[in-house]
Design goal:
chaperone; about 220 residues; about 15% strand; 6 helices; 6-stranded antiparallel beta sheet; Pdz3 Domain; alpha+beta; PDZ_sf; PDZ_6; 26S proteasome non-ATPase regulatory subunit 9; 2 domains
Length: about 220
């Protein structure tokens, strides 16, 4: 007799699939980064209208198309995860209401797991960078970032794959210009999800904020 799959098991499988999708998106993003950080919207022709000879145009087009398809799959997958997570919360509430608050803090990021997705891991994610300046009317302010926000995830970068180099953040910003970058931040005791769109504005850079390593990281 076949064993019925529980909501928890469905969530674990969906989250494992999510991690695989994000890894594929990251690999294609690395291809774009290797081609002069052309990103998803950088020009493929030079000022005279000829194909650029400093990048592999075929490779860039293939990577862009793959990312678009994968992002669509990722969006659908996130919808499925949210549905199952709501169901999981309802099931918890019927058996142990005190677990609801713990489950609501569940981080769906694959960086919260080791050796496969595990929704039972409710330990808080670690901040790897901190916002210490936000300029008025900047993309960062539009996204809702505030001074003192601790960043738990910046696009595909999290505490597990961050190498202590702020250039990783800069690479994402360049590659995702005029596109949504998902952030997870900690503000006081709250964890918030924000959408940041790197873009040109009246000030310097594409964000209008300054991000630094947290004090504990700088001590090492």
């Amino acid at each position: 007799m076949a064993t019925e799959i529980t909501t928890k098991e469905r969530l674990e499988r969906l989250m494992a699939a999510k991690a695989q999708l994000e890894e594929q998106i990251s690999k294609h993003g690395q291809i774009l980064a290797a081609n002069d950080n052309v990103g998803m919207s950088g020009p493929l022709v030079d000022l005279e209208g000829f194909p650029r000879n400093d990048i592999d145009i075929y490779q860039v087009r293939q990577a862009r198309q793959s990312i678009i398809c994968l992002q669509n799959d990722h969006k659908e997958l996130m919808n499925q995860i949210q549905t199952q997570l709501n169901l999981y919360h309802s099931e918890i509430a019927t058996t142990d209401p005190e677990l609801v608050n713990r489950a609501s803090a569940l981080d769906l990021d694959s960086d919260r797991t080791t050796g496969g997705a595990n929704i039972s891991n409710l330990a808080p994610a670690r901040a790897f960078v901190v916002v210490n300046l936000v300029s008025p009317n900047s993309p960062a302010e539009e996204a809702g970032l505030c001074v003192g926000d601790a960043i738990l995830r910046f696009g595909s970068v999290n505490s597990n794959n961050f190498k202590g180099d702020l250039g990783q953040i800069g690479e994402i910003v360049r590659n995702m210009q005029n596109q949504n970058v998902q952030l997870k931040i900690k503000r006081g005791e709250q964890q918030l999800d924000l959408i940041l769109v790197p873009k040109t504005w009246s000030g310097r850079g594409l964000l209008g904020c300054n991000i630094v390593l947290p004090p504990e990281a700088m001590e090492h």
